[in-house]
Amino acid sequence: SFFCNPGLLELSLGKFRNVLLNQTNPVEAVIRNIASNVTVIIFQVHAQQSDVVISFDKNPSVNSSGTGVDKGLVSILQPQQSVCTWYLRSLDASQVLSTAISIPYMEKDPIPGGCNLEFDLEVDPNIYLDYTLVDIHIKFAPANLGYTRGANPPSCDSGTGQNSRWRLRYDVYQYFLPENDLSEVVLMSHIRKMSEVQSIKANGIKMLTLTTDDKTNVYFSSLPGQGVIYNVIVWDPLWNTSAAYIPVHTYACSFADLVDNCSSLSKLSTKVFFTALAILGLFTCFFGHRFWKTDLFFMGFIFAGFFFFVFITRVTGLGYDVRLILTAVAGIIGGLFLVASWWRFGSVLLCMFIIGLVLGFLFSSTVFFTPLGDYRVFRDDVVFWVTFSSVALMIPVLFVGCPRILNILASGIVGSYAVILAIACYVYTSLAYITLDLLRRVLNDYFSRAYTNVPFQTNDFIILSVWTMLALSGVTVQLRRERSEVPFPPHPYLTWKRERERRSTNVLDPSHHIPPLRERIHNKLLHIKEFFQKEQPAGERTPLLL
To answer: Where in the numbering of this chain does the TM7S3/TM198-like domain appear (predicted)?
Structure first.
């Protein structure tokens, strides 16, 4: 239900209310008849993109209010107190849809943010979130032990034993909103699932557990355009009681920007680049082994383009569009170089090693795309890169005795994944992060600290089915068509050389009498010159008399 009266908002403990806020008329939120066994009430309000001010007083101060899209306050109840009051308003001139709830806790429940030393509020249950295009950073204040009404709060620095706050544990949860849905109503309905302890445990994904010895901040990989909700449950193992912080959400993008906002994240240059790559990849998926040089060009383009993009991003400050254009040029050069290397030297092993590496990198990226990639041991860069490289090199080593099978598998799988990357430019899919997270780790020194969990919803299952269908179809078609053919075409340079020698010695071969290339070009130019030359007058044309 919606409440839009600019006056009084009557609340019930544990019940959500939707409320329309504005800048000029604050809403007074009141809870009455609070039970005597309730010692703490956490009041919170959530909006999608417009900041909301929540305060204890009509005239907010820094130490008694909070401003943001996901904010809350802790009310420590006094003896005999049965009424609590808060004030709400928006910073936006227009009306803002928000949802509010008040959650009660008892004397043995821990108090989120009860040992705050960093933020403005004395007791701060809020989670503070910052994001970039690469990662999301959340941080929060440590909790304190619960206590009865009227008592002094336990000391935050009295010791580190089991009778102090140091026994508390913090479970960090993540929840994904439906993909490709940026509506306010969806956010309001789903954020309710991440506000109370039991609901968080039932719906959220537990990412990690922190002890009091750990820093209360966590990093996650950024998913621009995908709504994510984070929350923390603090648990007291002595009393087996828990309390939840204020859930916080992000889309890792801006709704207000005119360009590259949440509704249009992919740049035009990105769409052109990956659409062209997808066309070539689709052709390679079904015809890569038959058109061997095209296959070599495709794999060389990917190999050279990836490493060049990493290099130019690391050492220069060029804009994204410029880097992408230069990457395309470098990829073309790399593809042509691989084709030229095959033409001149005819080394199948060298070409297959490059192709095997491309497939190996994709396979290894897929392995670390699974929950295996979030294991703590792989936070160490040395361990990660040694393991990643070993898995990637395993592919060309395993298939060293059957290069044709390796090439068909690589063209089918890599070519079809290029189509998936093009789809990701137009419709959100988590499958794009198979390779994007690898690129982020290469380019950013601190990305190893980020958890890389992504949603896998209906849209992803459909696109995964498309990828699987394309890969299986491409591999099957090529295997059936090529089973009676020679494994690889003959060495082109040696073939050309033998053909040239044959024509120079066999006088019966018509090609033996073809003039040299220089003479043919000279004759052609003379013919063109005569064509444009004006006809000279011939004088009198009277027939001769016999």
So the answer is: 275-479
Bridge partners, 192 (sequence order): none
**How many other C-beta atoms can be found within 10 angstroms of the C-beta atom of residue 469?**
11
In this structure, the strands spanning 2-3 and 70-76 are unpaired
DSSP 138: E
Per DSSP (E only), the strands in 245-389 are 248-250
**What is the residue type of 27?**
V
User: Which of 327, 289, 291 lies closest to 309 in space, CA to CA?
Assistant: 327
| CA distances to 112, 208, 241, 258, 502 from 162, in Å | 18, 22, 15, 53, 92
With a cut of 70, say whether residue 393 has pLDDT above it. Answer: yes
Higher model confidence: residue 357 or residue 160? Answer: 357
Q: What is the mean pLDDT of residues 35-47?
A: 93
Q: Which of 451, 453, 454 is nearest to 210 (CA)?
A: 451
Distance CA 525, CA 530 (A): 9
Torsion of CA 535, 538, 540, 545, to 10 degrees: -120
User: Mean pLDDT throughout 427-442?
Assistant: 93
How many other CB atoms sit within 10 Å of the CB of residue 124? Answer: 24
d(CA 220, CA 230): 10
Angle of helix 403-424 versus helix 433-443 axis, rounded to 10: 90
DSSP3 helix / strand / coil % (the chain, rounded to 5)? 45, 20, 35
Please name which of 457, 472, 448 lies closest in space to residue 382, comparing C-alpha atoms: 448
Q: Which of 122-126, 133-137, 327-331, 346-350 has the lowest mean pLDDT?
A: 346-350
